[in-house]
Specification:
heterodimer, A: mainly beta, 4-stranded antiparallel sheet, 11 strands, B: mainly beta, 0% helix, globular
């Protein structure tokens, strides 16, 4: 299985901050990577796919970069609605795997 | 817009079989454009992919669960189902059904299944 490692596990930030979350794959996944946002008691929501393509309806303050084994999700100016847990997921292989999650908390 | 809804028992006894159904509306499980998948999330933990099924009936499962899992399709009811055999407390989780188009773009609300006697 391809292992996905996210960092940091927790991130404390303030409204208006620029935040970046990193996801590393144990082997190349080219750009077969998605990012999801999850709020407590809710299903995950797709934000980014193909490493850098913004899902329809997602605010442009979210952006994704990377290829191969290293990827980032950036929120350019953190908004109150963005405090949540974020997961990366690889869908390169026939066995899909998620990162362990990054919780974005209010500082 | 597609909607997915999980249904099934919220409590299952150890060693028994967990059975869930996902009803799809606003889209067809017979579409060749999507896979239909089950994903679970133990309390306080990350997401775990269980497996998927294609409209042809072909399936692919997480190797760690493959010996206990069956996913099936009922095109007449526009549903797909999950069976997980010989459950233990470690199978306690919120179970999500979802649609896959590469990434997973549409999710059900999730249903908590607790394994306990």
């Amino acid at each position: 299985d391809i292992q996905m490692t996210q960092s940091p596990s927790t991130l404390s930030a303030s409204v208006g901050d620029r935040v970046t979350i990193t996801c590393r794959a144990s082997q190349s996944i080219i750009t077969w990577l998605a990012w999801y946002q999850q709020k407590p008691g809710k299903a995950p929501k797709l934000l980014i796919y193909g490493a850098s393509s913004l899902q329809s309806g997602v605010p442009s303050r979210f952006s994704g970069r990377g290829s191969g084994t290293e990827f980032t999700l950036t929120i350019s100016s953190l908004q109150p609605d963005d405090f949540a847990t974020y997961y990366c997921q690889q869908y390169n292989s026939y066995s899909w795997t998620f990162g362990q999650g990054t919780k974005v908390e209010i500082k | 817009q597609v909607q997915l809804q999980e249904s099934g028992p919220g409590l299952v006894k150890p060693s028994e079989t967990l059975s869930l159904t996902c009803t799809v509306s606003g889209g067809s499980v017979s579409s060749g454009s999507y896979y239909w998948t089950w994903i679970r999330q133990p309390p306080g933990k990350t997401l775990e992919w269980i497996g998927y099924i294609f409209y042809t009936g072909s399936t692919n499962y997480n190797p760690s669960l493959e010996s206990r899992v069956t996913i099936s399709l009922d095109t007449s009811k526009n549903q797909f189902s999950l069976k997980l055999r010989s459950v233990t407390a470690a199978d306690t989780a919120v179970y999500y059904c979802a649609r896959v188009v590469g990434p997973t773009d549409s999710w059900g609300q999730g249903t908590l299944v607790t394994v306990s006697s």
